[in-house]
Design a protein that fits this description.
This protein is α+β, with helices and mostly antiparallel strands and 996 residues long. Among the domains are: 4-298, Methylamine Dehydrogenase, Chain H; 421-684, Peptidase/esterase 'gauge' domain (Methylamine Dehydrogenase, Chain H, 7 Propeller), CATH 2.130.10.150; 697-785. It has 18 helices and 52 strands. Strands 1, 2, 27, 28 and 29 form a five-stranded antiparallel beta sheet that branches. A four-stranded antiparallel beta sheet has the order 3-4-5-6, with no helix packed on it. It has a four-stranded antiparallel beta sheet with strand order 7-8-9-10, with no helix packed on it. It is elongated and about 120 Å long. WD repeats lie at residues 9-41, 234-263. Residues 843-861 have a biased composition (Polar residues). One of its GO terms (biological process) is DNA-templated DNA replication. Its main location: nucleus.
């Protein structure tokens, strides 16, 4: 029964036309020189949907819900199918793309510019095959990840895409200088079931090669053919091979017997440009020619002698399709061209299975352990299972044994090292590029602030593949290669003299991650060890990690370690070690990372205020709130309206103070290009609050930001937003909601504001109900301060570290004025009639020693200045305070704790009783400006006012504390010089010398 050819239909204007099938075989897709994309519902469709996607279209590839289209814009544009909404760019070339091919693991595209680019579907890696000396004409991929491409220089190249190795080159094919002038495409095609055969047309014959030995297996020839062949293609099951000629002839051979299938003659003598089989394996193929026409060939079956009943061939093909892959028609041909030792080993293995009684049969073992499989049809039928049940049981059993890979280590803010030009680091400080080409192997460092540091260009002798960059430190690391051990090399920009230091990893340890801040450098090795160094090169600690390390990040004295805390399933189970280094003391807190379902970690780092932040491949950015020990979502990549489905975000900086994320939008790729230099953009934090269109919800969003994020003027913003929400609730007659808001915030500073506003709008009942809350909130705040003081030595150490306390309290010299007793020679004679007291045995008491810390068992009154400041427990002292002990700082609250929101006592400011603020401010302006260089004049006055009030209160309390122990003694007479002074200040002067 001969095959049938449909008349060729006009589809596009004259020129190169390509055709392909929808992956389910229901529709035919054609593209042509007119730039149209047509979807044919069968060759008889009189009105196919048409979309113009470019000026010229050269190729199309459809799979799943996507279709790739190669246009004259020198790109491979992805579209959603069948809506044809743009879905990113897969490839970019310097000339138009001529052909594409795909298997389960790779997508390849060839161009007129003599280059082929291959994209890995699994990890997104892209590599390039170049220097081909001619345009790429046609290509195909195999199940064994081989790529065959015919080039315009008359050669056919075959690569292994997994190893990027060139396996074979075949010459003596037709040559052409431009793709637009090509007639003989010499299109290669792999046998689809196993991929062990490669066919390509050459002249009037089709040649079959063995992909193992590259020997010629067979040649298919049509003796009636008058012109040369241009294209060829295997059928979906590999049982037929079709070829098209220069004059429009279609030749089809039965691959098993080599018999030529008879069929209709061509209607038009136009060269065949593309030939593709229907994926349904229904004996149908579609073809296109150089005149812009499309047609089909149907009823492609070999005559079976007497068995010509209707549907008999279809049944035979269905049975053939259901046969096991081991019963392939090409097995004899393939084995005939194997090497003798390979063929003998296979035969011996099969013979031993039958002869050896101790041989373990794989299928028998599977049936014993996992139950009957699909091959045990008889056993399954006896047990009463039908085909559907059998498939369900097998799929459920296989699902139990399925494993999921864990995420590999990566460097945040970097691009893959497989690229010739890649980013080792691209963060808010600068850019570290690595150039690894045949002509150059170097590292280039570019700082965003060129006034602070000059750029650096280094020869990459050690082949560094990782780097960390901070304001003062550049850290680079190399793996074990060619017998050379792994090393860490650092350059300290702020050091004097020798700025570079290096360490070699012991044994066979290999560095897998590195990070640097202005104070520490941290290295992670494949032995699950963390090696911590100072910025100047001193080895600090070696820390063991309880799982495979994923990534590192550093900020000041803090660093993060992301590691796998459990085996991966559908999700990655990653935890964070948040470590703080103060002197030679470490503290660590461990938290789980909130990744989106099915995603991986893409970036981890710190915000500009030191809060840990994590970004995953699903586009969700979360920030860690240390006080609450919770993660807050602050941005989703889907909120960016200009982002396409195939675009990705590359995070550079998270600014918590300004509520912005600095990033690079990567069009059609996961990583930014090195040339040209990408332009960063800033997007505002977008918390996933509900209904942000209304005024109330916007104010609620601002309130949450001010309460949980370290924004500029957070306290002021919180008060303003709370008052606005309170006013809005009153305006909407929701007094209970207004009162609930005040009760929830529970701030004693907010109560006077809302009471004043409620009275102003004549909500007297609401104002009266809010008044009793003020003493309650004040009492709560005092209790909270006491609880904080009690738990500071145990639980609040890490919280204070992560809130980035001012470490100047540790390193800065204490300039607090010392209150010393009078010299012995200047002391007035003591009254012999004065009663002796227990306090006299301790000497003259100071304000610090008389403020509730008396007795032999009292603790050191200064221990909170260091213990609370650095977050560690201070050891208790069994001795009583000495005479010369320092007074408590103004930054220490009434309960002994330190509040970083209160002004710190620099010691330089002195307040004389009775002195006004302005003279005091002029006297201490320089000290205040040195302590707060970022403050403007108005802020400096506010800070000075707070310090002035604190010192005035301290002076008053010091005078009261230094009063005589025996309150019943007689009062002394006033001198003339003491007349303008108060009693408290005079008593303070009686026991101490005035400072200054």
């Amino acid at each position: 029964m001969p095959f049938k050819r449909s008349p060729m239909r006009y589809a596009h204007i004259m020129g190169y036309t390509s055709v392909t099938y929808q992956d389910d075989g229901n529709c035919i897709i054609s593209v042509g020189y007119d730039g149209d994309f047509r979807i044919w519902n069968g060759i008889g469709d009189d009105d196919p949907p048409t979309v113009c996607v470019g000026e010229h279209v050269w190729a199309a590839l459809q799979y799943g819900d996507r279709v790739l289209v190669a246009t004259d814009l020198n790109t491979v544009q992805a579209y959603k199918y069948p809506s044809l909404d743009k879905d990113g760019i897969e490839f970019r070339f310097t000339a138009f793309v001529t052909c594409m091919a795909k298997n389960k693991r790779f997508i390849a595209a060839g161009s007129e510019d003599a280059t082929i680019k291959v994209l890995s579907v699994d990890d997104g890696e892209q590599f390039e095959l170049e220097n081909l000396e001619g345009p790429v004409l046609s290509m195909d991929t195999s199940k064994q990840d081989l790529l065959a491409a015919s080039i315009g220089d008359g050669k056919l190249h075959i690569w292994d895409m997994k190893t990027k190795e060139l396996k074979k080159t075949i010459q003596d094919l037709p040559k052409v200088k431009s793709f637009e002038a090509v007639v003989h495409f010499s299109s290669p095609t792999f046998e689809p079931k196993k991929g062990n055969l490669l066919a390509y047309p050459n002249g009037k014959e089709v040649i079959l090669l063995n992909t193992t030995s590259w020997d010629v297996v067979k040649k298919f020839v049509n003796p009636k053919l008058s012109t040369t062949l241009t294209v060829c293609r295997f059928s979906p099951m590999g049982d037929y091979l079709a070829a098209g000629s220069e004059s429009g002839d279609i030749c089809i051979w039965d691959c098993e017997t080599g018999k030529l299938v008879e069929g209709d003659k061509p209607y038009d003598a136009n060269p065949i440009t593309k030939l593709v089989w229907n994926p349904k394996n229904n004996g149908e193929l579609a073809l296109s020619d150089g005149n812009g026409q499309v047609g089909t060939v149907t009823d492609i079956f070999v005559e079976g002698g007497e068995d010509d009943a209707e549907g008999a061939d279809i049944v035979a093909m269905a049975e053939k399709e259901d046969d096991d892959e081991d019963d392939d028609a090409f097995d004899d041909l393939f084995n005939a061209h194997l090497k003798p030792d390979e063929r003998d080993s296979e035969n011996d293995a099969s013979g031993d299975d039958e002869a050896n009684e101790n041989c373990i049969e794989l299928e028998k073992l599977k049936s014993q352990v996992m139950g009957p499989t699909q091959k045990s049809d008889g056993a399954m039928s006896d047990a009463g299972f039908d085909d559907d049940d059998r498939g369900t049981v097998r799929s459920e059993r296989l699902a139990v044994a399925k494993s999921y890979p864990q995420q590999h280590p990566f460097q945040p803010s970097s691009t893959p090292n497989s690229l010739e030009h890649c980013y080792l680091v691209y963060n808010h400080v600068g850019i570290v590029r690595r150039h690894a080409t045949d002509k150059e192997n170097s590292i280039e460092v570019e700082f965003h602030d060129s006034q602070q540091h000059h750029g650096i260009h280094l020869n990459n002798f050690l082949n560094h593949t990782m780097a960390g960059l901070s304001e003062t430190v550049l850290a680079m690391a190399c793996p074990n290669e060619d017998g050379n051990p792994s090393k860490i090399v650092c350059i300290n920009q702020a050091a004097f003299g020798k700025r570079e230091w290096t360490y070699t990893m012991p044994g066979c340890e290999e560095i897998i991650a590195v990070t640097a801040s202005d104070k520490i450098v941290v290295v992670a090795t494949d032995s699950r060890l963390l090696r911590v160094y100072t910025a100047r090169g001193t080895q600090r600690e070696v820390i063991a990690v309880a799982g495979p390390i994923v990534a590192l990040a550093a900020y000041g004295d803090h660093f993060l370690v992301a590691y796998h805390s459990a085996p991966a399933n559908e999700d990655q189970h990653i935890s964070l070690m948040i470590v703080t280094c103060v002197n030679f003391k470490l503290r660590c807190r461990e938290v789980r990372v909130p990744l989106t379902a099915g995603s991986e970690m893409q970036w981890v780092g710190y915000s500009d205020r030191g809060s840990p932040a994590v970004y995953d491949t699903a586009g969700m950015l979360n920030i860690y709130h240390a006080t609450s020990n919770l993660w807050l979502p602050i941005y989703n990549a889907e909120y960016l309206q200009t982002k396409g489905a195939s675009d990705h975000l590359f995070i550079i900086k998270v600014s918590e103070s300004t509520q912005h994320v600095q990033l690079v939008l990567c069009r059609g790729s996961k990583y930014p290009l090195t040339t040209p230099k990408p332009i960063p953009m800033e997007v505002k934090f977008a918390l996933p609050m509900c209904d942000l269109e209304s005024e109330k919800e916007c104010l609620e969003d601002d309130l949450v930001r001010s309460l949980y994020l370290k924004v500029n003027d957070a306290d002021k913003l919180m008060k303003e937003t709370a008052v606005k929400l309170f006013a809005l609730a009153c305006k909407n007659e929701c007094e209970q909601r207004a009162k609930e808001l005040v009760e929830t915030i529970a701030s004693s500073h907010l109560i006077p504001l809302v009471i004043k506003y409620a009275s102003k709008i004549r909500r007297y009942h609401l104002a009266d109900s809010l008044a009793p809350l003020l003493p309650t909130f004040q009492e709560q705040e005092v209790q909270e301060e006491k609880l904080e003081q009690e738990s500071v030595r145990e639980n609040a150490a890490i919280v204070n570290e992560l809130q980035h306390i001012n470490l100047e309290a540790i390193t800065k010299k204490d300039t607090t004025p010392k209150i010393k007793p009078l010299p012995v020679g200047t002391k007035k004679p003591t009254n012999p009639f004065r009663k002796s007291t227990a306090a006299a045995t301790d000497g003259i008491s100071s304000p610090a020693s008389s403020s509730g810390h008396t007795g032999a068992n009292s603790s050191n009154p200064l221990e909170h200045l260091t213990g609370k400041a650095i977050g560690f427990s201070a050891s208790r002292s069994s001795s009583s305070p000495s005479v010369g002990s320092k007074p408590t700082s103004s930054s220490v609250d009434a309960t002994g704790g330190q509040d970083e929101n209160r002004p710190q006592n620099s010691g330089g400011g002195t307040s004389t009783p009775g002195m006004k603020f302005l003279p005091w401010f002029e006297l201490n302006r320089d000290d205040l400006q040195r302590k707060h260089p970022e403050a403007d004049e108005q802020q400096l006055i506010k800070i000075g006012m707070r310090e002035f009030k604190v010192q005035q209160a301290k002076g008053a309390s010091s005078g009261a504390a230094s009063s005589p122990a025996d309150g019943g003694s007689a009062k002394r007479k006033l001198d003339a010089s003491d007349a303008p002074e108060t009693g408290v200040s005079k008593l303070a002067k009686f026991g101490f010398v005035k400072s200054g």
